[in-house]
Amino acid sequence: MNATPRWLDPEQKAAWDHFIRMQEKLVGRLSRHLQSDSKLSAADYVVLAALTESEGGRMRFLNLTRRVEWEKSRMSHQVGRMAKRGLVTREECPEDGRGAFVVATPEGYRAIEEAAPLHVEHVRRLFIDALTQEELDTLGRLSARVLAHMEQQPD
Fold first, then answer.
1. Per-residue model confidence as pLDDT tens digits over 77-126
2. What is the pTM for the complete model shown?
3. How far is CA 102 from CA 27, 41, 63, 109, in A?
4. Residues 6 or more apart in contact with residue 104 via CB below 8 angstroms
5. What is the C-alpha separation between 56 and 45, in angstroms, rounded?
6. pLDDT tens figures, 22-36
């Protein structure tokens, strides 16, 4: 680590502050709409989206944890809460006694299928409609670049 901090210049700080504020406000609003529209939390939605987009609606627990960038304990608690509500089940992995699968139930599929149309409409209204197609393309490229850069950095 450098001994002298590399402070952000005013333009960098403004860009960072605007990005963080936008992300927090957007996620907060989307989460509130999701909860009021579907009774799913943002965490429920993230887990169900990952599962229902995967082969057979199932993922190994550790792969799901990595996919959503959560700690194992957070995922364990989330899966437990969702299992109590019938949205997911946990299945042991026959090849690996220590591994487990998280599986979307029919109720979990129903919940995400009902929530997704309203959620995507809020995403469109709050985010997509604010930008031109060229701006969305640029944002997509920039986001992909930052994600690739982060993959090269130590965690």
1. 999 999 999 999 999 877 766 779 999 999 999 999 999 999 999 999 99
2. 0.87
3. 25, 18, 10, 13
4. 48, 51, 52, 57, 58, 87, 88, 112
5. 17
6. 999 999 999 999 999
Helices (H), 39-132: 42-52, 61-67, 72-84, 106-126
Closest CA to 38 of 111, 124, 122: 111
Q: Which domains occur in the chain, in start order?
A: 38-152 (1.10.10.10)
Residue 51, SS3 per DSSP: helix
Query: From CA 7, how far away is CA 10, in angstroms rounded?
Result: 9
Q: Are 112 and 48 a contacting pair, CB within 8 Å?
A: yes
CA distance 15 to 146: 14
